[in-house]
Design a protein that fits this description.
Layout (H helix, E strand, L loop, with lengths): L5 H26 L20 H25 L4 H28 L6 H17 L1 H23 L10 H11 L19 H7 L2 H12 L3 H28 L4 H18 L6 H5 L6 H21 L7 H4 L1 H13 L1 H22 L3 H9 L1 H19 L1
Length: about 400
């Protein structure tokens, strides 16, 4: 289980990329955020009808939300980790099947094109590339920057004292079949959730590492230090590209410069293991790093997408995507519980004032319910510790 073979690679691609993509497509269809239509050409400055990145991000948020919602009661009542695993996997598979079925149906509704038309489209694409040489060069430079950063991540793999909690807890889960049952310092049983145990109980990111490791048949140490940084770096690159597309009004040239700058900043800003950019870049096996590098930027992207919606009637159901995002950030880290609640509250208030749609305040409150529950639970556990 400590090495990576062909089966492991297949399971990694399936469980960390393909499965979230189709599950996310189903979730976006249910929320009304998936717009069915033809994808735009690379250099055309038109609205993108297909957000492939958003499908992948949404699928990740779905599995993380289900995992956290299941892990909390199971951990509290000392239940089996495999209960969490099968519930999370079952819900995800349901959404995957639904997503594939919806995607196939939408494809069948489109008119089929002749091969000659496909050849004309191919010629048109080549003509667009030749007509946009500057954009093409910048895209190549951007890809090279991401590739160099991936080399940096793989060759400078990071280990520190946090392994004694995150990775030991993940390994212990697969050994005992229980979530947060063994004190990694003493080896004895955990009887109360206090200190670091309270944080791990509220934000069981180590459990999600164990979950991904189990369904990919890979040891948690290998998953955390080798697979997750590489896969999540590629996902973050897609996220940065989508943010650039929104910020720079579909300008591919400015977006390429933006993504290149971000990854060069990651490379040269991570001068020590404790720097802000080190925490944000190559430490994705830690939940707080995922909050900084993936969770908070994704929230910003979701806010921008929701802000573009002007239909007051169905904006509410679309806001549930923020509920999934806030819950996923709660899973990652304790600071995600606070930051996502503050950001969602501020955005919801500003959105309400600018759009003059007071229903948004109600949906904002609904979106931060997981945060409120975990904050209250944290205070209850703290008070209980002092009383006892």
């Amino acid at each position: 289980m400590g090495t990576i073979n062909a089966l492991n690679l297949i399971m990694i691609v399936m469980n960390m990329l393909v499965v979230p993509y189709f599950a996310g497509y189903a979730l976006l269809r249910m929320l009304g955020l998936e717009v069915v239509g033809e994808p735009r050409k690379l250099y055309e400055k038109t609205l993108r009808n297909v957000r492939h990145g958003m499908r992948l991000f949404s699928g990740m948020l779905l599995s993380m939300t289900v995992f956290l919602a299941t892990a909390l009661p199971v951990t509290w009542f000392k239940g089996s980790f495999y209960t969490v695993l099968w519930i999370t996997l079952g819900v995800t598979i349901f959404f995957v099947v639904f997503g594939i079925e919806r995607l196939v149906c939408s494809k069948n509704k489109k008119d089929t094109k002749k091969s000659s038309q496909n050849r004309r489209d191919s010629d048109k694409t080549w003509d667009l590339i030749k007509a946009h040489k500057e954009e093409t060069v910048l895209i190549i430079i951007c890809i090279a920057a991401i590739a160099y950063y991936l080399y940096f991540v793989i060759s400078k793999m990071h280990f520190d004292e946090d392994d004694s909690r995150y990775i030991v807890n993940a390994v212990d889960i697969l050994r005992t079949g229980k979530l947060l049952s063994t004190d990694p310092t003493t080896g004895g049983p955990i009887t109360e959730f206090y200190g670091d145990f309270k944080k791990d109980f509220l934000s069981p990111w180590y459990g999600y590492i164990a979950y991904i490791s189990k369904i990919c048949f890979i040891h948690p140490t290998v998953m955390a230090h080798t697979i997750m940084p590489v896969v999540y770096t590629l996902i973050i690159a897609v996220l940065m590209f989508d943010i650039g597309i929104e910020v720079f009004n579909k300008d591919i040239l400015k977006t390429s410069i933006f993504v290149t700058f971000m990854f060069m900043l990651y490379v040269f800003g991570a001068y020590s293991r404790t720097s802000a950019l080190a925490m944000k870049s190559y430490r994705q096996w830690q939940g707080k790093a995922m909050v900084a590098s993936f969770g908070l930027p994704l929230l910003i992207l979701l806010y921008m997408i929701l802000y573009e919606i002007n239909d007051k009637k169905d904006i509410g159901i679309k806001w549930l995507i923020i509920l999934f995002a806030d819950t996923a950030l709660c899973l990652m880290s304790g600071n995600g519980i606070i930051f996502s609640a503050i950001m969602t509250g501020c955005f919801g208030l500003i959105y309400t004032i600018l759009k003059k749609n007071w229903r948004i305040l109600i949906w904002t409150v609904i979106a931060v319910i997981p945060n409120a529950i975990l904050i209250i639970l944290s205070q209850v556990l703290t008070i209980n510790m002092y009383l006892s």
